[in-house]
Amino acid sequence: MSEKDNLRLKLDINNVFAEMIGDEHGLTVEELEEAKEEALKAHQNILEAETDGKMGFMELPYNQEEIVKELKATAEELKDKFDNFVVLGIGGSALGNIAVQTAINDPHYNLFEEARNGYPRLFVNDNVDPEGIKALFEKLDPKKTLFNVISKSGSTAETMSQFLLARKFVADAVGEENVGEHFIATTSKDSGYLIEIAARENMKKFFIPDNVGGRFSVLTPVGLLSAAMTGVDIEKLLDGAAYMDKICRQDDFWKNPALVNGLIQYLAYQKGKVMSVMMPYSDRLRDVADWYRQLWAESLGKEVDRQGNKVNVGPTPIKALGATDQHSQAQLYMEGPFDKIITFLEVENFAEELEIPGAYEDLAGLGYLGGHSFAELINTEKWATELALNKRNRMNQTLKVPEVNEFTLGQLFYFFEFQTAVTGELLDINAFNQPGVELGKNYTYGIFGRDGYQEKKDEYENSAKHKDDLIL
């Protein structure tokens, strides 16, 4: 086995089957075999769409060699000039950045200089809560802060409002003529307001491919720049994605775990498992679950199918964390409605074992812990939860991660992106648009008086008013 093969993710689907969780709630191998041709057709459609340039995320492991060189050179040039690197973005322009940072770097990266190894602190400001924004800016030295503004359109209200604040913050400290040195724009190459602003201010620019949507963009400069600026090996991230891509392209159904799981998620949904729980038993992978929530919800939650029929489909993604949520959500998962499929992320080899010291051997409820490790404990708790779910006839599965590093993280991102595309095909919906999100954005534009959105402002002003007697 090669080193890469030893780091391959493995999907254990035993616990989705009736043999483990009973006939009422479990699937059968025969059901998957019967639906296999439908899944293979979905697979073929995805590969054909990629050939037509419609699956941009599938190109990313292979077409960014020059971009990666530029990103690395930029990080090397700027890391000693700035103490802080602040990402201004939201949704797909933030969640992947956070997931990479949490997974790869020291949990206390921002707190201690030795943890940063010469790289700047990273802050991802992904909301417009005024208290949070003010608290961050009060801690930053504008002369030592580099901002990365991420917006494909350059009109994302949340991102661009923060940019306007950051621009004034910097200009007041270094002068209007030097503003551009403190900003990097990540945006569309050929259109939008941000590319125009970047040219005016002489900002450095990186581009988001037009055929890659925000929630699929973590392996573009959207996610790769902040990764490079914090010392993450971005080539290994893409190498992991390329490794998983080769697996995902296989048309041998049972050798393609993302294809198999795309079908399992679809069949589980048809069987009433309308909630998809991701539960990493790893602090490093906790924010992958946040990233997955957007990917799954925004891709699969759709009002109409491809024929325009109203279908209102979409499984609801839920984030949990093992072992923490054994003490909060697990009660619901064990005894609540049979409406969930749970995906555990299990780390087989932690970077640290950390032995539990022995003491109080005379106390039966405590002495047994000594001599074991925390790595043993967290994985034993995962196995115990899995067994308890099986006993309660609850559908669950495990994605085994040999260890958490850039190569396996790249695999993880690509695995779930491809799985999402498969499930979208099976649901016969467009998994790559987000009309519901756009509607909310348009109302915001109208209420704020943006040109061209008067109709939305009128709708808001003429909408039903809340009754005072129903505000308790």
UniProtKB/TrEMBL annotation:
UniProt pathway annotation: Carbohydrate degradation; glycolysis; D-glyceraldehyde 3-phosphate and glycerone phosphate from D-glucose: step 2/4; Carbohydrate biosynthesis; gluconeogenesis
Record's subcellular location: Cytoplasm
Keywords: Cytoplasm, Gluconeogenesis, Glycolysis, Isomerase
GO molecular function, a single term: glucose-6-phosphate isomerase activity
The UniProt record lists the keyword Transferase: no
Pfam families linked: PGI (PF00342)
Active site: E298 (proton donor), H327, K441
Cellular component GO terms, alphabetical: cytosol
Predominant localisation class: cytoplasm
Domain of life: Bacteria
EC numbers, comma separated: 5.3.1.9
Family: Belongs to the GPI family.
Physiological role: Catalyzes the reversible isomerization of glucose-6-phosphate to fructose-6-phosphate.
HAMAP family named among the record's database cross-references: G6P_isomerase
This protein's name: Glucose-6-phosphate isomerase
